[in-house]
Design brief:
Arc Repressor Mutant, subunit A, Tetracycline Repressor, domain 2, elongated
């Protein structure tokens, strides 16, 4: 028989999953505790017991999304399975719900959305350092900038969901759409878009331009 604690954890997971689906669909104001309770098959009082308020429930969803991203990426890095098909498939299977929630949360433009993005940047920096230690990522001269820009590019696709889906001819937030965008993103970030040596030449030119600009500013 399951213990009371086991039941509570299962109930909390059902509530959280229901909220992850409800918030993007109905918005924060439009989502009611009663509606989430009905979706989760629990009483509204149980939601209040576990999460306190609707804002508390949203915060829990934010934390869960970040934790899932952390767990999947950290496991792939430390186990050396970044290029393992099974690992990728596992990520794709849970990605649609998480990505849909992320897109909604960031588009909300609220203090909670700002805090979520800031937390994602810090987590990206930590994971990038871990990847460097395991030889899976090249060091950066400005890691914070690289992580922040990478996140903005990746998450920006979620905010452009409707237009990008139309351009691709399939839903960006479907499993197939996420796999297709992931392949294109890897191509961009790996430098595969440029001819051999071109990316390095452009990087050198940018370094020179930055240095010349700084000297001009200093001299001025």
């Amino acid at each position: 028989m399951r213990s009371v604690a086991d039941f509570d954890l299962t109930a909390m997971a059902r509530i959280r999953n229901a909220a992850l689906d409800r918030f993007p669909r109905d918005g924060f104001k439009g989502t009611t505790v009663r509606a989430v309770a009905e979706d989760a098959g629990v009483s509204p009082g149980l939601i209040v017991h576990h999460f306190g308020t609707k804002e508390g429930l949203r915060s829990s969803c934010d934390e869960y999304v970040i934790d899932q991203i952390r767990t999947v990426k950290e496991d792939a890095i430390t186990s050396g399975k970044l290029d393992d098909p099974a690992t990728m498939a596992g990520g794709f299977s849970v990605a649609p719900q998480l990505m849909r929630y992320l897109g909604w949360s960031l588009a909300a433009g609220s203090p909670a959305a700002a805090a979520l993005f800031d937390d994602l940047v810090e987590e990206s920096i930590r994971l990038s350092k871990l990847a460097e230690e395991h030889g899976a990522m090249e060091p950066s001269s400005d890691l914070r900038a690289r992580c922040a820009v990478q996140l903005a590019l990746q998450l920006g696709a979620l905010l452009m969901h409707e237009h990008l889906s139309r351009a691709l001819g399939e839903d960006l937030l479907s499993t197939e759409g996420i796999m297709r965008v992931s392949r294109a993103t890897l191509e961009l970030f790996s430098g595969a878009m440029f001819a051999p040596g071109q990316a390095e030449a452009m990087r050198h030119a940018l370094d020179v331009a930055i240095e010349n600009t700084r000297k001009g500013t200093t001299n001025g």
